[in-house]
């Protein structure tokens, strides 16, 4: 690669984002594509973190995963095992994967397989379990584990069969382009994309050689789960950004994620290195009966969607969720996206936003611009209860600490010989 | 009391309901509230969170359920009314946004024909923005101070090369083609053009000219260091030439502290080539003669009078206003507490002159300090660190006035009240309690000068009335205030009449050419990009000028280390290794 300036290196990175071609190919057990999961290992969201530093919901997710994997048959034993060091922890991001909220991914959980055909790399993400008491928000009751087993035994295999009947899998760029015009921003709101996805898969499912019960259950689950596409989008964003960061120079942000303690980012010029700062607590709206006092600090790998340019960066695309942005409405969302465009190199012509007068979504967060202007990316996010087991209690927005971006550009300048 | 209100067939989006719930929760009369649609899972949530009422059984998925805990039936009605208002409220789209302007690119896109950048950001960052203004073809009016003098000299030279002018740094006041900039009064338009290295000096002279019936369309501030050897009077000379060239200027007044000898010679050489009548005021030097067409004033009052008389084609003779009637004091000390630096400076040299004080022993923080007398410019950096300027903040002058009671040597206190844009809304009332208190406890006489015009927004007559009501002797100008103060201690200033000699010959063959953009600056209403204090747009908007406000922020939050990193990365070349 032959660049003269950082500007040119950054241009090369974002060119790869624009040229990317993510396709959803399959749903498979995590251990079949992530070799380390054949050990006693759990993947988690965010930069590396120790068991004792995890917030309650992330620990709850780990308990749920241990019960699901049948490494223990009760909570007490599960916690003992997790605290003893018997189970290894590793960030999803270190295994070509991403995970929502707690991000806990274990051997037998089914994961989406998304291949970025422009670069030939692959990324994985667990499937969305729906709302309420769910593992990703730290719930680990019998109901939660039962649902995970059904996803392992029914949902995963059925979707896999359906996807394998398609010659090239599902072209995700096409779905995203359609759904952004229907008011999704792909982090807070995925209903249009989830329906478009069901529209692709539904007719195929009816033809599969499976029981009526399986057809009905899977169809019902896909129809009920408004956020189903979020996890596909996460895997796709990860595949695209990992493809782009094969350009090993420049200051484009290639990952953002949080583990409840630290917010971590990567930039193209610094490869796999994480630059972290203390994570913030989301601001937003709460379900009846809950308030900011109940909120857990920010967690999850889902900010990979903002890294790609959707979610909070594309707030203006989703008028229906704009009111999560503080007290305001449409114009606050417009302000947010306008402001986000100031820290990005360009705009992605593949995904024009109708409500933004067909400007493309933000493309290429430049860590230099973040530091220079003091504007940090806006991340749309779910809010978990700080106690494990209760689950989601609201939704809103959160910003990374500017210190991660400062550390990243300082390290890069040092690497370049400053 | 716990209420279950079921609104049948009233579907609302969950975000709307969450917003509504959070709003109602903030009401004092509401103890607890929860609003959701009546789906089975929501009903479970109600029950789990302690809202378990029999009415819940009747609700369906299409009903909106309001669970409300309030003290009385009245409160319930209020809350229900509020819910109704909230749900029926329509947004009128009044939130239409203007894009935030936070870069030169956006500012220039918004105002492509802007020709002046008004810069009031912290001095350490100002030089870079002045340079950007010049690079983009804009004149700069720089309110910021603490710009290194080397940078000032370099930038002024660069601007001059491009036919542009840098007014300031540390330029507090300016009127450009009738548009008041920064700390300025509203005064009449007219044919007297002023060039001044001092802010309150310009204010005193323009407001006096206004009161004498003439007007000022252009008052160009140059900044206090323009006439230093390092800078070389670049802005002053460009301004002189421009005003000389301007068909709407008939008389030119130049105000400065005494410059370095060679710079004074250079400026006078230019002025002697100018054909329009000129008044100079090198504050602190005492000229003994005029030249034909080039008149040398001693005080701000004289400069204003001579300028006016030249316009009126009257005999060019200074007639200072006499002191006001006062009773003699047994004490002898005169204390001057000024918010205007030039007024303080004028007070210091006039008092030294009248009282034959030696100038050598003036100590730091004082414009004048002797055993009995002192004059302080409370706008000096020494007094304003971390505080607003005394023109805005009365606090430090209140302290000084209060301290007078413990100084038996003090006979009289002189102070200024400066009106206009940027100044306190009602300084007379702010100082009033301290003056009343001091007068009750001592025999000190208070003398003030109010700098302003009848068009200033503070209402000058009202300010004067407030001061006179509490027994302050209010004077027309600073010279009269000092004459009055001197009379209290039995002294006075003597102004000798000056003879008029022939104008000395200039060594210049002809005056330099005036650049097109400088000629345009003074002959057309400027279009401004305001960088820094948002309040500086006020005087422009009030006077129907065009202004774009640039929300400037220091790069990287002002962190110099990070700025260096950014600079390194932005300049980095891979092949250079």
Overview of this structure, please?
Chain B: InterPro entries: CoA-bd, SUCC_ACL_C, Succinyl-CoA_synth-like. The complex is a heterodimer of chains A (418) and B (577). Chain A has 418 residues and is α+β, with helices and mostly antiparallel strands. Chain A has two domains: 22-231, Enterococcus faecalis V583 domain (Enterococcus faecalis V583 fold, Alpha-Beta Complex), CATH 3.90.1710; 248-416, Alpha-Beta Complex (v583 fold), CATH 3.90.1700.10. Chain A has 13 helices and 16 strands. In chain A, a hairpin with a 4-residue loop joins strand 5 and strand 6. In chain A, helix 1 (6-19) crosses helix 9 (228-244) and helix 5 packs across helix 8. The two termini of chain A are 21 Å apart. Chain B has four domains: 2-92; 99-170 and 526-577, 3-Layer(aba) Sandwich (Rossmann fold), CATH 3.40.50; 172-320 and 495-515, Rossmann fold (3-Layer(aba) Sandwich); 333-488, 3-Layer(aba) Sandwich (Rossmann fold). Helix content of chain B is 36%, strand content 19%. In chain B, the strands form six sheets. In chain B, strands 16-17-15-18-19-20 form a six-stranded mixed β-sheet, with helices on both faces. In chain B, a hairpin with a 4-residue loop joins strand 16 and strand 17 (374-377). The model of chain B has no long low-confidence stretch (mean pLDDT 91).
What is the strand arrangement across the widest sheet of chain A? 4-6-5-1-7
**How many discrete structural domains of chain B?**
4
Assembly form of the protein:
heterodimer
Residues in β-strands, percent of chain A: 15-25%
User: Would you tell me the overall average pLDDT of chain B?
Assistant: 91
Total number of helices of chain B: 19
Cα shape of chain A: globular
Helix content of chain A: 25-40%
Q: Helical element count of chain A?
A: 13
Structural class of chain B: alpha/beta
The level 1 CATH classification of the largest domain in chain A is: Alpha Beta
Query: Remind me, CATH topology of the largest domain in chain A?
Result: Enterococcus faecalis V583 fold
């Amino acid at each position: 690669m032959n660049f003269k300036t950082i500007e040119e290196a950054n241009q090369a990175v974002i060119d790869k984002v624009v040229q990317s071609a993510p396709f959803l190919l399959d749903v498979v057990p995590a251990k079949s594509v992530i070799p380390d999961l054949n050990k006693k290992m759990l993947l988690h969201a965010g930069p590396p973190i120790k068991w004792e530093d995890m917030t309650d919901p992330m620990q709850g997710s780990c308990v749920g995963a241990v019960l699901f994997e049948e490494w223990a048959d009760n909570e007490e034993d599960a916690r003992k095992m997790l605290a003893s060091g018997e189970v290894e922890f590793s960030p999803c991001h270190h295994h070509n994967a991403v995970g929502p909220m707690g991000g806990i991914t274990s051997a037998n959980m089914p994961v989406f397989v998304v291949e970025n055909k422009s670069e030939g790399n692959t990324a994985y993400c667990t499937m969305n379990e729906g709302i309420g008491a769910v593992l990703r928000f730290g719930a680990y009751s019998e109901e939660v584990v039962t649902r995970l087993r059904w996803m392992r035994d029914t949902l995963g295999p059925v979707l896999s069969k359906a996807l394998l009947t398609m010659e090239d899998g599902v072209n995700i760029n096409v779905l995203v382009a359609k759904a952004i015009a229907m008011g999704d921003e792909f982090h807070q709101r995925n209903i249009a994309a989830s329906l478009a996805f069901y529209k692709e898969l539904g007719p195929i499912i009816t033809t599969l050689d499976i029981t009526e019960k399986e057809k009905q259950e899977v169809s019902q689950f896909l129809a009920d789960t408004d956020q189903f596409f979020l996890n596909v989008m996460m895997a796709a964003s990860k595949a695209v950004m990992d493809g782009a960061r094969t350009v090993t120079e420049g200051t484009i942000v290639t990952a953002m994620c949080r583990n409840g303690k630290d917010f971590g980012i990567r930039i193209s010029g610094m490869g796999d290195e994480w630059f972290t700062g203390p994570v913030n607590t989301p601001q937003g709206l709460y379900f009846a009966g809950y308030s900011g006092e109940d909120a857990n600090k920010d967690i999850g790998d889902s900010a990979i969607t903002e890294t790609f340019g959707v979610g909070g960066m594309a707030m203006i695309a989703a008028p229906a969720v704009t009111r999560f942005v503080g007290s305001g409405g449409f114009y606050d969302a417009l302000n947010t996206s306008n402001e986000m465009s100031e820290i990005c190199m360009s705009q992605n012509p593949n995904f024009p936003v109708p409500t933004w007068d067909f400007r493309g979504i933000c493309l290429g967060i430049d860590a230099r611009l973040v530091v220079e202007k003091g504007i940090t990316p806006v991340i749309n996010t779910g809010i978990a209860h700080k106690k494990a087991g209760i689950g989601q209690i609201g939704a809103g927005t959160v910003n990374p600490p500017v210190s991660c971006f400062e550390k990243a550009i300082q390290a890069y300048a040092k690497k370049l010989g400053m | 009391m716990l209420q279950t209100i079921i609104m049948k067939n009233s579907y609302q989006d969950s975000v709307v309901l969450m917003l509504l719930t959070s709003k109602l929760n903030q009401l004092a009369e509401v103890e607890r509230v929860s609003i959701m649609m009546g789906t089975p899972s929501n009903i479970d949530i109600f029950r789990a969170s302690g809202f378990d009422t029999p009415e819940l059984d009747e609700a369906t998925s299409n009903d909106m359920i309001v669970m409300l805990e309030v003290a009385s039936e009245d409160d319930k009605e209020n809350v229900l009314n509020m819910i109704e208002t909230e749900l029926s409220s329509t947004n009128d789209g009044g939130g239409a946004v203007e894009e935030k302007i936070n870069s030169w690119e956006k500012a220039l896109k918004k105002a492509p024909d802007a020709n002046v950048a008004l810069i009031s950001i912290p001095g350490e960052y100002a030089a870079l923005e002045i340079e950007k203004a010049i690079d983009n073809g804009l004149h700069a009016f720089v309110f910021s101070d603490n710009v290194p003098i080397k940078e000032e000299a370099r930038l002024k030279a660069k601007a001059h090369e491009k036919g542009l002018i840098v007014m300031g740094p540390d330029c507090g006041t300016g009127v450009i083609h009738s548009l008041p900039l920064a700390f300025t009064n509203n005064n009449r338009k007219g044919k007297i053009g002023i060039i001044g290295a001092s802010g309150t000096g310009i204010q005193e002279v323009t407001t006096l000219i206004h009161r004498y019936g003439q007007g000022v369309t252009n008052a160009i501030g140059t900044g206090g260091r323009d006439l230093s050897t390092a800078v070389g009077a670049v802005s002053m000379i460009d301004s002189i030439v421009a005003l000389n060239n301007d068909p709407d200027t008939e008389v030119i007044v130049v105000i400065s502290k005494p410059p370095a000898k060679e710079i004074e010679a250079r400026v006078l050489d230019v002025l002697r080539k100018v054909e329009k009548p000129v008044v100079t005021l090198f504050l602190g030097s005492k000229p003994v003669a005029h030249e034909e067409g080039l008149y040398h004033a001693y005080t701000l009052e004289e400069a204003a009078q001579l300028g006016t008389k030249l316009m009126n084609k009257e005999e060019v003779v200074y007639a200072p206003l006499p002191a006001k009637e006062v009773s003699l004091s047994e004490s002898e000390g005169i204390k001057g507490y000024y918010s205007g630096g030039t007024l303080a400076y004028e007070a210091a040299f006039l008092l030294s002159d009248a009282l034959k004080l030696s100038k050598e022993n003036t100590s730091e923080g004082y414009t004048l300090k002797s055993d009995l007398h002192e004059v302080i410019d409370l706008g000096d950096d020494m007094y304003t660190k971390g505080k607003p300027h005394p023109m805005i903040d009365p606090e430090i002058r209140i302290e000084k006035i209060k301290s007078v009671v413990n100084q038996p040597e003090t006979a009289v206190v002189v102070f200024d009240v400066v009106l206009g844009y940027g100044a306190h809304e009602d300084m007379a009332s702010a100082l009033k309690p301290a003056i009343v208190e001091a007068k009750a406890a001592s025999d000190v006489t208070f003398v003030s000068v109010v700098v302003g015009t009848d068009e200033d927004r503070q209402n000058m007559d009202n300010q004067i009335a407030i001061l006179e009501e509490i027994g302050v002797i209010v004077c027309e100008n600073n010279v009269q205030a000092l004459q009055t103060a001197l009379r209290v201690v039995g002294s006075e200033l003597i102004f000798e009449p000056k003879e008029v000699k022939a104008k000395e010959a200039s060594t210049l063959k002809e005056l330099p050419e005036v650049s097109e953009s400088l000629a345009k600056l003074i002959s057309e209403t400027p279009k401004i990009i305001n960088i820094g204090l948002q309040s500086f747009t006020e005087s422009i908007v009030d006077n129907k000028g065009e202004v774009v406000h640039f929300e400037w922020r220091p790069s990287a939050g002002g962190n110099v280390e990070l700025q260096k990193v950014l600079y390194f990365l932005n300049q980095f070349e891979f092949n250079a290794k």
